[in-house]
Design a protein that fits this description.
The complex is a heterodimer.
Chain A (H helix, E strand, L loop, with lengths): L1 H7 L10 H16 L1 H29 L3 E4 L10 E4 L1 H21 L13 H22 L3 H19 L5 H32 L4 H7 L4 H18 L8 H7 L2 H26 L6 H23 L4 H16 L11 H33 L10 H4 L1 H15 L5 H15 L3 H25 L13 H16 L5 H7 L12
Antiparallel strand pairs in A: 1-2
Helix pairs in contact in A: 2-3, 2-5, 3-4, 3-5, 4-5, 4-11, 4-14, 4-19, 5-6, 5-11, 6-7, 6-11, 7-9, 7-10, 8-11, 9-11, 10-11, 10-13, 11-14, 12-13, 12-18, 13-14, 13-18, 14-16, 14-17, 14-19, 16-18, 16-19, 17-18
Chain B lengths: L2 H28 L5 H7 L5 H12 L3 E5 L4 E5 L1 H25 L5 H17 L6 H12 L3 H4 L5 H30 L8 H7 L6 H15 L8 H8 L2 H11 L1 H10 L7 H22 L5 H25 L4 H29 L5 H16 L5 H8 L1 H4 L3 H25 L10 H21 L7 H4 L2 H23 L13 H26 L2 H21 L2
Helix pairs in contact in B: 1-2, 1-3, 1-5, 3-4, 4-5, 4-12, 4-16, 4-21, 5-6, 6-8, 8-10, 8-11, 10-13, 11-12, 11-15, 12-16, 13-16, 14-15, 14-20, 15-16, 15-20, 16-17, 16-18, 16-21, 17-20, 18-21, 20-23
The chains are: A mainly alpha, B mainly alpha.
C-alpha cells in the first residue's frame, strides 16, 4: 500500500513542516526576553520568513502532487507524532502568512512603544500574542494528531481572547471573558470526544484513525462532541453569543485577525474531522444538520447585520453570516460534485479571510478618522477618505458574491454542487444571503458617497489605507484563480463517503 | 473574402478586448486628480473600439477573442454587433452631451466613475461569450448605474436609486442560479454560452432555468409587473444618464434573452408565455404612460411598452424555432437604442431652448417620437418591417399593429407634454445641441445602413403596401391621442412607477417586523443558558444523526 507508506514516513522536505510552528514560537520567547520595543521588530521581521516557508511548503506539495509528511523525532505513529500538509493546509498557511503581516503593518501606529523607552503593556502583549496566534494556527494546519490539535486549539484561544481587551475598557473585558468562557466549554466538548476515540481505538493519529474507524455509537458520540465543541469556537449560529461583542470591541488589527483567521482555525479542524477522520462513514444527515445551521447563520447573521447601528458590529454580524457559508459544503461531501463543493468551501474561507480583514481594517480607519463608527454618521465620509471606502466596498463585493471576487467563485462552486446534488435549498439560501449582504452594504456605502464631507479628526495615513486596499484586492484576485489552483486544493483530500465498511 | 471580412479576422479579436478595456483605461486615468480633466475629454472616444468591432462584424464576418489569463472570452455575432454599433453611438453622443455635467459639480468624480463602469458593462454584454464573462459585464452595466440614478441626492433620486438597486440585485441573484443551472446542464463542463444553451433543451433543469432566465432578464427590461423601477429611475437620472440607461444599458436584458433562449429549439409553452407577457407589457406601458405628465416618465413608459414588443418577438421566435428572431429582435432593439436615447436628449435640449431655437428642435423631437410608432421612412418603420416575419399575419400580427397605434398615441402625448414643458434656465451649450443633433441624425440613418445585414430589402421598405401598413395604425393612434386631448386629459393620475408603490408598501410593512423578530431571537439565543443548551443539543443531534444513518 503506497499511500500507507507515505502517511507515516517523512517525505523529502518534510522537515520544513516544523518551521512554520517553530519560527513564531521562537519569536514569542524572544519577545518576552527582549521586551516591548523589540517585540514589534521581531514580529515584523519574522513574518516575511514565515511567508517564505509557507510558499516553500506549498511549492513542494505542488511539485510532488502529494501531501508532505514529517515524523517528529523519527518515531512513527501511533508511538510518535506526525505533521502533515496537504493542499488545504498549504493555502491556509499562505493566507495566514499574508494577512498577519498586513495586520502587523496596520497595527504599528496603534501599538508602538514610545521613544522614551518606557515599556507599555499593550504593545508587548499585542506583538507577542500575534505571533502566538500564528504559531497556533500553523500547528492546527499541520498537526496530524487529534490531541496535538487540542493543544493548538487551546493555544489559539488563549492567544486570541486577550487581544479583545487590550485597551482595558470594561465592555472589552466582558467581551473577552464571554469569549474565553464559551471557548472553554467548546474545548471541553472536544476533549471529551478525543478521549472517547482514544478509548475505542488506542490512537489519535488522523490517518490511522481513518483506517480503523467504524460506524459505532462511541465514534458518533465522539464526532458529535468534537464537532459541537469546534462549532462553539467557530461561532456558528446559534453558538455565536461571544462573537459580535468580541470582534466589534477588539482593536481593528486584532478584529481583522480574529474574524479573518482565528475562526477559520476551528473550522479547519471540523473539515479535518469530517473529511479526513470520518470520510468512510455515511455522513449525509450530520452534513445536512451542519448545513442547516449554516443556513440559519446566513439568514439570521445577515438580517441582524442590517439592523446594527455601529459599523464594526455590522461587520461582526456579517462574519456570523459568512461563517454559515463555510458549512454548506458538508452535505455535498459525497458524490461526483464533492470536489466542487470542497473547493467552494475552501474558496469561501480564503476570500472571507481577505475580505473581512480588509473591512475591519477599513472600519478601524473610519472610526479613528471620524471619532466614531455610527452608521448614521457616515454621510459623505467616503468623499473624505475614498481609498478606505474603496477597500471597504471591494471587501463587500466579495461578501455579496458579485464578480469579480473570490466570494463569487465560492458561491458559484457551492451553488453548482448543490444544484447537481439536487439539494437546491442551499442555493436559495446563498441567494438570499447575497441579497441581504447587498442590503447592509447599501446602508453603509450609499450615504458615505453622498452629502457633504465630514470634518475628519485626522485623515487616515495612506500607507494604512493601502494595507486594507491590498487585502481587498487579494479577495478580488481570487476570482481569477486558475484551474490548477483547484487541482492543488484536492491534493491529499480523501474521497469522502467512498467506501462503507 | 471581402476586405472587411479579412480585416475582421485580423483586427476583430483585439478590438473585442479593446472594446471592454477602453472605458476602463479612461477610468484609471480619471482616478488620477492631475489628469482627470484630460481623461474626461477622452471619454467620448472610449466607445470607438466597440464601434469599430461592430462595423467589422456587420460588414465582414463574426469573430471571437479571449483573455486566457483572466479566463474571459468574447464573441461578436450579427445580433450582438447590431446592438453594439447602436450602443456605442449612443455612448459617444451622450458622453459629449454629459461633459457639461461633469465640470464643476460636487458629484463629478462619482458620476464619471459610474459612467465609465456602466459604459464598459454596457458594451461588454454584447461581446461576452461565456457565462462568467457575461455575468461580470452584466453586473457592471447594472450595479454602478445606481449612482447615475441617485446622482441628485434629493429624496426622489434616493428612492429611485434604492428601488433600482433592489430590482437589480434580485435580478442578479435570479440570473446567478439560472446560470449555475445552465452550467450544470452542460455535460462537458463548458461555460461557453452557445454550448450551455445548446444543451439546455435536454437538461434536467430546463424549465427551472428558462423560468429564471425570463424572470431575471424580464426584470432588466421591466416587463410588467416588474416594471416599477424604470419610470422612477429614468425620471430621476440626469438627462445624459437617462439617455444611456434607456437606450443602451437596458439592452443588456434584450441581448440576454437573445443569447440565452434556445431559439433554435421549438418550445411553444415557454415561447407563448413570454410572448403574452411581452404583449401585456406593450399595452400596459402605453396605458399607464398616457396618464403621466412628466416627459421623462412618459418616455420610460414607452420603453416598458417597446421592451414588451421585443419580448413578444423573442417569445414567438422561441415558440416557432425561428432562429431569425434573434437578429430581427436585435434590429428592432437597436433602433430603440438610438431613438430613445435621442428622445431623452431632446428633453434636455427642449428644456434649455427658448424662442426661435425651440420650434425646429421640437420638430426633430416629433420625428423621433413618431419613429417609435413606425413612421414611414424612419428607422422605426424598418424595425417594424424586420419583425413582421416573426410576428406573422395572425393574431400576433394584429396585436402588433394595435401596439403600433397605441405607441403612436403615447408618443403624441409625449410630444404635447414636451412642447408645454418649462424652460429649466440652463443655457443650451453648442456641445449639447450638436451631440443631440448628431444622434438624432444617426437614429434616422443608421437603421437604413444596417437593414440589409438582417436580410431586409430596402425596396420592400419603400413599397406602397408597406407604407400603408405602417400608416393606418398610426392614424388610429393619432385619433386616440386627439380624442384624449379634446376631452381634456380625462385619465386618472397614476403615480409614476405604478405598481412599485404597492411593492414598496409591502416591503415597508414586512421588513422591519421581520428584522425585529430576528433581533429578539438573537437576544434569546445569546443568553448563557440558551447557548449552553444549543451546544449540548447540537452535539447530541449530530451523534444521533450519525448513529441513525447506519
Amino acid at each position: 500500500m503506497t499511500e500507507g507508506a507515505s502517511a507515516f514516513a517523512a517525505t523529502a522536505g518534510g522537515s520544513l513542516l516544523a518551521l512554520p510552528i517553530l519560527v513564531p514560537a521562537a519569536g514569542v520567547l524572544l519577545s518576552f526576553l527582549l521586551g516591548g520595543r523589540q517585540a514589534e521588530r521581531i514580529a515584523l521581521a519574522l513574518m516575511p520568513v514565515q511567508f517564505g516557508f509557507a510558499v516553500a511548503i506549498a511549492s513542494l506539495i505542488w511539485r510532488s502532487g502529494q501531501p508532505l509528511v514529517y515524523v517528529l523525532g523519527g518515531y512513527a505513529p501511533p508511538l510518535g507524532i506526525a505533521l502533515r500538509a496537504d493542499g488545504f493546509s498549504a493555502v491556509m498557511l499562505v493566507t495566514t502568512s499574508l494577512i498577519m503581516p498586513a495586520a502587523g503593518l496596520y497595527a504599528r501606529t496603534n501599538f508602538a512603544t514610545p521613544n522614551d523607552g518606557t515599556e507599555r503593556r499593550a504593545p508587548l502583549v499585542f506583538w507577542t500574542l500575534l505571533q502566538a496566534i500564528q504559531a497556533a494556527l500553523s500547528l492546527i494546519f499541520l498537526g496530524g494528531d487529534l490531541f496535538n490539535l487540542y493543544v493548538a486549539l487551546e493555544l489559539l484561544t488563549f492567544a486570541a481572547a486577550p487581544l479583545v481587551c487590550l485597551d482595558g475598557r470594561p465592555e472589552t473585558l466582558a467581551a473577552a471573558l464571554r469569549y474565553l468562557m464559551f471557548a472553554l466549554f467548546g474545548a471541553l466538548f472536544y476533549l471529551l470526544g478525543v478521549a472517547l476515540l482514544y478509548g475505542a481505538y488506542g490512537t489519535l493519529d488522523i490517518v490511522l484513525l481513518s483506517r480503523q474507524i467504524r460506524a459505532e455509537p462511541a465514534v458518533w458520540l465522539a464526532a458529535g462532541l468534537m464537532t459541537a465543541g469546534l462549532l462553539a469556537k467557530t461561532a456558528l449560529f446559534p453558538l455565536h453569543l461571544w462573537l459580535p461583542p468580541a470582534h466589534a470591541n477588539a482593536p481593528a488589527a486584532a478584529s481583522a485577525v480574529l474574524s479573518g483567521l482565528v475562526v477559520k482555525g476551528s473550522f479547519f479542524l471540523i473539515v479535518r474531522l469530517w473529511f479526513n477522520v470520518l470520510p468512510a462513514l455515511p455522513n449525509a444527515v450530520p452534513g445536512a444538520i451542519l448545513a442547516a445551521l449554516g443556513s440559519a447563520a446566513i439568514l439570521a447573521g445577515s438580517a441582524l447585520a442590517l439592523r446594527q447601528e455601529r459599523l464594526k458590529l455590522l461587520i461582526a454580524y456579517s462574519t456570523v453570516a459568512q461563517i454559515g457559508y463555510l458549512f454548506l459544503m458538508f452535505p455535498l461531501a459525497s458524490g461526483p460534485w464533492s470536489a466542487e463543493a470542497f473547493s467552494g468551501g475552501v474558496m469561501q474561507a480564503l476570500s472571507h479571510a481577505f475580505a473581512k480583514a480588509a473591512m475591519f481594517l477599513s472600519a478601524g480607519l473610519i472610526a479613528e478618522s471620524l471619532g466614531h463608527d455610527r452608521i448614521a454618521g457616515l454621510g459623505g465620509a467616503g468623499r473624505a477618505m475614498p481609498v478606505t471606502f474603496l477597500a471597504l466596498g471591494l471587501g463587500g463585493l466579495s461578501l455579496m458574491g458579485l464578480p469579480p471576487s473570490g466570494g463569487f467563485a465560492a458561491k458559484w462552486l457551492l451553488m453548482k454542487a448543490s444544484i447537481e446534488a439536487g439539494q437546491w435549498v442551499w442555493a436559495v439560501v446563498m441567494l438570499a444571503g447575497g441579497l441581504l449582504a447587498g442590503g447592509y452594504l447599501y446602508r453603509v456605502l450609499a450615504p458615505a458617497l453622498s452629502g457633504n464631507r465630514p470634518r475628519l479628526k485626522s485623515p487616515p495615513r495612506r500607507s494604512r489605507e493601502n494595507v486594507a486596499l491590498a487585502l481587498a484586492l487579494a479577495a478580488v484576485l481570487l476570482a481569477f484563480a486558475p484551474p490548477t489552483f483547484f487541482a492543488f486544493l484536492q491534493i491529499g483530500r480523501p474521497a469522502a463517503g467512498a467506501a462503507l465498511r | 473574402m471581402s476586405a472587411l471580412a479579412a480585416a475582421a479576422q485580423e483586427f476583430g479579436p483585439g478590438l473585442l478586448v479593446a472594446a471592454l478595456a477602453a472605458p476602463l483605461v479612461v477610468l484609471a486615468v480619471v482616478l488620477s486628480p492631475k489628469l482627470r480633466f484630460a481623461a474626461l475629454a477622452m471619454s467620448p472616444l472610449a466607445p470607438l473600439p466597440a464601434l469599430a468591432a461592430a462595423i467589422l462584424a456587420i460588414g465582414g464576418a463574426p469573430f471571437e477573442g479571449e483573455l486566457p489569463g483572466l479566463r474571459m472570452s468574447f464573441r461578436l455575432d450579427l445580433p450582438g454587433a447590431i446592438l453594439l454599433a447602436a450602443a456605442a453611438l449612443v455612448w459617444i453622443a451622450a458622453s459629449v452631451f454629459a461633459r457639461a455635467d461633469w465640470t464643476g459639480r460636487p458629484n463629478a468624480e462619482r458620476f464619471a466613475v459610474s459612467w465609465l463602469l456602466t459604459m464598459a458593462g454596457s458594451l461588454g454584454v454584447f461581446v461576452a461569450a461565456d457565462l462568467l464573462t457575461f455575468y461580470l459585464v452584466y453586473a457592471l452595466v447594472s450595479v454602478p448605474a445606481y449612482y447615475l440614478i441617485a446622482d441628485d441626492e434629493d429624496a426622489g433620486s434616493s428612492r429611485a436609486g434604492g428601488v433600482y438597486l433592489a430590482f437589480t440585485l434580485i435580478g442578479e441573484a435570479v440570473l446567478l442560479i439560472a446560470f449555475v443551472m445552465l452550467a450544470a446542464g452542460e455535460p462537458g463542463g463548458s461555460l461557453d454560452i452557445r454550448a450551455v444553451v445548446d444543451a439546455l433543451p435536454a437538461s434536467p433543469w430546463r424549465d427551472a432555468a428558462l423560468a429564471l432566465l425570463i424572470l431575471g432578464f424580464g426584470m432588466k427590461i421591466a416587463l410588467a409587473p416588474l416594471n416599477g423601477w424604470m419610470p422612477l429611475a429614468y425620471a430621476a437620472a440626469p438627462i445624459p444618464a437617462a439617455a444611456v440607461l434607456s437606450g443602451a444599458a437596458v439592452k443588456a436584458g434584450v441581448i440576454g434573452l437573445i443569447r440565452f433562449l434556445p431559439l433554435g429549439a421549438a418550445l411553444p409553452g415557454w415561447g407563448e408565455a413570454l410572448a403574452w407577457a411581452g404583449f401585456v407589457s406593450a399595452f400596459y406601458g402605453v396605458a399607464i404612460g398616457l396618464t403621466q405628465r412628466d416627459p421623462k416618465t412618459i418616455l420610460a413608459y414607452s420603453s416598458i411598452s417597446q421592451m414588451g414588443v421585443i419580448a413578444a418577438v423573442l417569445g414567438l421566435g422561441l415558440a416557432g424555432a425561428d432562429q431569425n428572431a434573434a437578429s430581427d429582435a436585435a434590429f428592432y432593439a437597436a433602433n430603440h437604442v438610438l431613438v430613445k436615447a435621442a428622445l431623452f436628449l431632446s428633453v434636455g435640449v427642449a428644456a434649455a431652448l427658448t424662442g426661435r431655437g425651440r420650434s425646429p428642435a421640437l420638430i426633430v423631437a416629433a420625428a423621433l417620437a413618431l419613429s417609435l410608432g413606425g413612421l414611414p421612412l424612419t428607422g422605426g418603420a424598418l424595425a417594424k418591417l424586420a419583425v413582421k416575419g416573426t410576428l406573422g399575419d395572425g393574431v400576433a400580427g394584429a396585436v402588433a399593429a394595435a401596439s403600433a397605434a397605441a405607441t403612436t398615441a403615447l408618443m403624441l402625448h409625449f410630444f404635447i407634454r414636451l412642447a408645454r414643458s418649462d424652460n429649466d434656465g440652463k443655457a443650451a451649450s453648442p456641445q449639447r445641441i450638436l451631440s443631440w443633433l448628431a444622434l438624432a441624425f444617426a437614429s434616422m440613418l443608421v437603421p437604413w445602413l444596417m437593414f440589409p445585414a438582417v436580410g431586409g430589402d430596402l425596396a420592400d421598405a419603400l413599397a406602397t403596401a408597406t407604407l400603408w401598413d405602417a400608416i393606418w395604425p398610426m392614424l388610429i393612434g393619432a385619433a386616440l391621442a386627439a380624442g384624449l386631448w379634446a376631452l381634456g386629459e380625462p385619465l386618472p393620475r397614476i403615480p409614476a412607477g405604478d405598481i412599485v408603490v404597492a411593492q414598496e408598501a409591502a416591503f415597508r410593512a414586512s421588513a422591519p417586523p421581520l428584522g425585529a423578530a430576528f433581533e429578539r431571537l438573537d437576544w434569546r439565543l445569546r443568553q448563557w443558558p440558551a447557548a449552553g443548551l444549543s451546544l449540548l443539543t447540537i452535539a447530541l443531534a449530530l451523534a444521533a444523526a450519525g448513529f441513525a444513518s447506519r
